[in-house]
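Q: Give me a backbone?
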Amino acid sequence: MAEKTFALKGIVIHTPERDQFEIHENHYLVCQDETVVGVYETLPPEYTGIPVEDFTDKLIIPGMCDMHIHAPQYAFRGLGLHINYREWTNWFELYAFPDESKYADLEYAEMAYEKLVADWQKTPTTRACIYATIHREATGILMQKLDEAGFVAYVGKVNMDRNSIPGLLETTEESITETLAWLDDCAGRYRTVRPMLTPRYTPTCTDELMAFLGQLANEHNIPIQTHLSEGLNEIEWVKALRPVDSCYGEAYDAYGLFGGTVDAVMAHCVYPTEVEFELMTKRKNLMVAHCPQSNINSSGGVAPIRDYLAAGIRVGLATDMAGSNTLSLFRAITDAVHASKAQWAFTERQGDPNLQCTALSLSDAFYLATKGGGALWGKMGSFEPGYHFDAVIIDDTRLRDFRPRSAQERLERVILTSDDREIYAKYIYGRRVL
């Protein structure tokens, strides 16, 4: 049972604003009723005598939010880089679809999801938006394991009633019936895990299925997740399937699945047209899940994240396992900065040696991994008063050199070089889970 009121003492680092880290050296981070009270150099009199976990000289950061991940693909992480762009659809045929079809076997699902959740616990992630598979029972296994581990998550039973392989394809009627049964299964069952409607993407969902999901989402206020404008071939495919739409986003918006009234997380968003970009700015419940590593792995490109942010579009960060090969959002932060720098160098600099770089900074990307994505849960991803108390404690002793380094330098080194050995403790909603 978590203490209702307690404090952590250590080097508190967060990004209330995108453009800079806010650092408090060996301060007290106070939690009351699962919520941040504040950060203090000394404990206020009213908190004298509360339990204090002493993490002096360790780094304390907000829990991170992985806004797009395919849980069943963890088994084949690190595979597929040999596939070139022209043959990228083979990635689905060789790995994604065959592996996902295995989750009809509940014994396999039990083993695979047990390993995923155990390994995920050793990362800075505390919250996530997660794809499962079309299999209702296996999706329930994943949700149960996440809930038992203390994660906060939205999980989706995937909907696919066209353009898939045998064993990973539903009829429209089956998809509707199984989705309703899954929602019944979820009702009141989990403490911190919730359902999220998950049409895989337009090419695998008929208009009839999309219409059903849109009505369900809006009538019951259930958030949705899907893919948008990930690659040029995919965009052309959507045009062929729905020539009536002026952009890919309209294929979702036509059914109320584009952040109009319910939250909608759109993964990738690499190639928005002017029409699509304008539509995105009007849908205030829409969030972009930026997946920098998988976008590069698939030769998809670099999403215009700075443009989205400038336009007021919400953006979070994602690993997109197994389009990427890691569960760590530290790596996603690094990839986001690298991709943004490359985009700036090749599209804006144009050989000018004196042009100031406007790529995403480290604090920008850290913000996206914490407060940016955390906005889906309201006040999350920061240590400002009133925010949900998710915290990760990092022991960077193994990474030290023989010179004094600032707290920000230490955090930067952790982001660029650490692994699960540096994750010392983790709190979610004020409850220690690691």
